[in-house]
Amino acid sequence: MASTIAGRSRIAWRMRLNSAVRTATACAIVGGATIYGPKPLVSEIKFAAFSYLTAVIIVSDASLGDTLKGCWHAFCATVQVVPLAMLARWIMGPTGGLQLGLVALVVAVAAFLVALPECTHLTAKRIAFGQIVLVCSDAVIGGGASRSTAGFMHPVYVAASTGLGALASVLALLVPYPGLAHSKVRKLCEVYAENASQRMNIYLRTFRAEDDHAKMELISQAKPLSETGAKLLQSIRILQEGMQWERPWSRCFKHNSLCPGDRLERVELQMRGIEYSLVSSPAFPVQVVDQEQLSNVLKGVSVQLEQKMEQVTRFSPSHSMTEPETRGELMEKPLLPLDPMFPMLKFGWVLFYFSCIDMLLNDAAGTCFSSRELQNRREKTEFSIVRAFKTWILKLVSKERLRFAFKCSLALGLAMLFGLIFDKENGCWAGLTLAISFVQGRQAVFTVANTRGQGTAIGSVYGVIWCFLFHHEELRLLALLPWIIFTSFLRYSKMYGQTGGVSAAIGALLILGRKNYGEPNEFAIVRLTEVFIGLTAFLAVELLLQPIRAATLAKNHLRQTLHSLRDCLKEISTCPVQKNQTAIKFHELRDKQRNLSSLVCELKKIVADAEFEPDFWYLPFRTSCYQKLVGHLSNIVDMLYFITSNFERLSDLSETSTLCKEFQEQMSSELELFQETLSSSVEYLEKAHSIESQADSQEAVNEEFRDLEARKLQNPDSPSALITENNEVETNNEEVGEDNRRQRQKMIQCLGALGFCISSLVKEIDETEICRKEIDQWESH
Predict the structure, then answer these.
(1) What is the C-alpha to C-alpha distance for residues 164 and 173, in angstroms, rounded to an integer?
(2) Could you give the 3-state DSSP secondary structure of residue 757?
(3) pLDDT of residue 574
(4) Cα separation, 723 vs 726, whole angstroms
(5) Alpha carbon 274 to chain centroid distance?
(6) What residue ranges carry the coiled-coil annotation (predicted)?
C-alpha cells in the first residue's frame, strides 16, 4: 500500500513539475521573442503582456491536446474580435481618441455579444474579452491623425500578440518531447490498476475478518488507497479531454467505446459499494461457514479480480477493450456459489458485497442499452435535430445565459471606465484583470477576489524585488523562470488555488518579462491599483446581480439537491418489473441520477469555497456539518445507482428466465414491497422539506420518520423471505437444470442486494435530515 501511494505521489509530482517547466518554457519563449527577437517580429508584438496572458491561459496544466484545443479557442476569439475591430477603427479614421464613457459602452456591448452564445468555449471568451479591452483602451490613448494607420493596424498587433502566446504554448509542449495526454493517461491507468488491485485484496481479507476490530483495522488500511484512487480518477478525467485533439480520427472508429475516465469511474463506483457493504455491517462469526470452502470461493474471486485489473491496465486509449472475450470467460463461472455459502446469506450485506463484485467483473451495469432503447434514443436524437434551431434560440435567451452575458458586460464596462479615469495609459489592466477571470455559473465572489488580489500582490512584489537586484534584462528573465514553476505548484494549494496561482504568475510576468514600461515600482503600484479597481467592479456587479455568499449559496444549492433527490426517489419508486415496460424508464432514471450526482459534486465544490470565505459580520460557516451531509448525499447517489442496476438486472432475468411461475410471482411481490418502501421515503422527504417552520413541525417530522421506520421492508442484515425459502428448498435440488440454477442464484443475489441498498438508502436519508436540522438550528440562534 505504501509503495502504491508513494508511486502515485511521484507520478503526480513529476506531472506537476513537467507542467510547471512547460509553462515556464512558454513564458521564456514569449520573453525571448519580445526582448531579443528580430526587429520585424518585435515591431509586430506590441502587447507582450497579452502574449504572456494567452500562454498562461492555454498551457497551464495542459497536455498537447489541451494546448491544441486552446490554440483553436484563441483563433476563434481572434476571428470574433479582430475583423470587426479593424472595421471600426477604419470607420473612425484619423479622428481623436474616443471619450471614456463611449469606450466603456463599446466594451460592455462587445462583451455582451461575446458572452451570450453558448457554443463558444469559456477560454475563447476570456481571450476575446482581453482583446476587446486592449483594442478599446488604445482607442482612448491612440487616436490622432498622425497615427491613423497605426490605429487601423492596432487590432492586428493584438492578434499577433495572441498568436505568439498560442505558438509559444505549442512549442513548449513539443520540446524536448511531446507532452501527450495519451501517455499521461496510460501511466495513470497503470497506477490506478495497481491501486485497485491492492484495495480489492484488502476488501477480500476484510470479508473474512474474525471480529469488528480486525475488520475496521483492515478498512482503515484501504482508506488512503481509496483517496488516492479518487485523485487518480480525477486526473485521468481532466487529461482525457485533450486526447481527442491529439487523435481526432479516433472519433470515427470508436463510436461505442467509453473514455478511460468513464470506464474507471464505474470501477471506482463499484469498489465504493464493496467498501460501503463492509463498513456499514458487522463482521459475521467465524463458525458461520466452513472456512476451507470460503477460502476456495474467495481465491476464485481473487483470480478473476486479477484478470479484471489487468484489463483495467489496458484501458489506455491505445488499446481497444476485449470485452466480449473477457466477459464470456468470467460469465462461464457462477460468481456466488450459494450451496457452500448459504449460512452467510442471512447477512444482507454479503449479497450486496458479491453483487458489487459481480458488476465489477462483468461490467453488468450501465454498459449498454437494449436494441429497443437504442432505437428510441435514435428517434429522440433525430427529432431533436429537427428542433435544433429552436433549441438554440431557447438556450440563447435563457435566464442563465442572459445573466452571465450581462454580468460580463457590466463588470468589464465599469472596470474600463474607472480604470481609464484613474490612469489612461494603464487603464487596460483593470479590464484585463476581469477578462481572464470570468466563470460560468455561480462562484464564491469574495474567495475569488481575495485569492486574485493576494496573488497579484505577491507576484508584483517578487517582480519589483528582482528588478531592484538585477538591472540586466537577461538576469530578470532568468529570475522569472523559477517563479513560474513555483506558482504552477501554488495553483494546487488550498490557500490560492487556480485563480491565485495564475494571478501570482502574471503579476511577476508583467514586471520581469517587459521593457519600456517605466520604473518597475511605479508600474507595480499603478497596476495594483488598477487590479483593485477591476476587482471592485467585479464584486459590485456580482453582489448587485447575485447578492449571495458562498455559505448562502451552499444552503440554496443544498435545497436544490434535496429536491432532485426527491424526484429520483419518486421515479425509482415506480420502476416497472417487466422488461417490456422499461425501454425508456431506466434511461430517464439514469438521467435524473446523473443530474443528482452533478448537483452533489457541485455542492462539494461550493462547501470547499465557503470554507475559505471570509466571515465578516456573518456567522461562521458550519463546514463539518456540510461535509458530513455531502458524504451522506454521495452515499445516497451510490445507493440509487445500485438500486437501479439491480432493477435492470432483475428485469432482464424476469424476461429470459425459465423458472416456474410461482417463483416469478414471489419476485414481483418482493419488488412491490421494495417500491412501497421507496414511496415511504419520498413521502417522508416531501413532508420534511415542505413545512415552513421547523420549530413548529419538529414533532410531526419525527413522527413521520418513526412511521417510515415502522414500514421499512427489512433490516439491511436480514435476507428477504424469497431468498430464504427458495434457497432452502431448491438450491440443493439436483434435478434443477444448470441454467435455472444460475438464474435463481442471480435473482437471489440481486434481490438481496436490492434489499440492502434500500435499507441503506433510508438510513442515509435519515442521516442527511439530521445534518440538515443541525445546520438549521445553528443558523436560527
Answers:
(1) 14
(2) helix
(3) 67
(4) 6
(5) 23
(6) none
> Between vectors from CA 281 to CA 280 and to CA 284, what angle results, nearest 5°?
160
> Cβ contacts of residue 272 below 8 Å, gap of 6+?
226, 638
Q: What are the cell numbers at 288?
A: 458461520
Q: Which three cell numbers stand for residue 401?
A: 445565459
Q: Where do the domains of the chain lie, and which CATH numbers do they carry?
A: 2-178+395-545 (no CATH), 181-243+260-279+294-370 (1.20.58), 550-780 (1.20.58)
**Which residue reads 496572458 in cell numbers?**
53
Cα–Cα distances in angstroms (integers) from residue 242 to residues 63, 69, 134, 259, in the given order? 7, 7, 30, 11
Chain CA centroid to CA 49, Å: 31
Q: How far is CA 575 from CA 411, 702, 720, in A?
A: 48, 28, 19
CA–CA separation, 644 vs 637, rounded Å?
11
Structure letter (DSSP) for residue 62:
-
- Full-model pTM: 0.79
SS3 label, residue 731: coil
The residues, any chain, with a CB within 8 Å of residue 71's CB and separated by 6 or more, are 58, 166, 169, 170
Whole-angstrom distance, CA of residue 367 vs CA of residue 311: 16
Only one residue has cell 483553436, namely 72
Contacts of 648 (CB under 8 A, 6+ apart): 365, 582, 586
Q: Determine the Cα–Cα distance for residues 686 and 678; give it in Å rounded to an integer.
A: 12
Cα distances (Å, whole numbers) of residue 619 to 564, 598, 610, 623: 28, 28, 12, 12
Structural contact between residues 708 and 680, judged by C-beta atoms closer than 8 angstroms: yes
Q: What pLDDT, in 10s, does the model give residues 504-526?
A: 888 888 888 766 666 788 888 88
Cα-based angle 229, 266, 257 (whole degrees, multiple of 5): 115
Element spanning 174, H or E: helix 148-174
Distance separating the N- and C-terminal Cα atoms of the chain: 46
CB 229 within 8 A of CB 271: yes
Closest residue by Cα to residue 280 from 631, 707, 713: 631
CA 632 to each of CA 278, 638, 646, 705, 743: distance values in angstroms, whole numbers, following the listed order: 16, 10, 21, 17, 34
Cell numbers representing residue 533 in the block: 479597481
Of 410, 397, 487, 439, the residue nearest 126 (C-alpha): 439
Nine cell digits for residue 437: 477571470
How far lies 436's CA from each of 109, 499, 567, in Å? 18, 10, 38
Confidence at residue 666, expressed as pLDDT on a 0 to 100 scale: 58
Q: Is 246 left (phi over 0), alpha (psi -120 to 50) or beta?
A: alpha
Are 283 and 209 in contact, with CB atoms under 8 Å apart?
A: yes
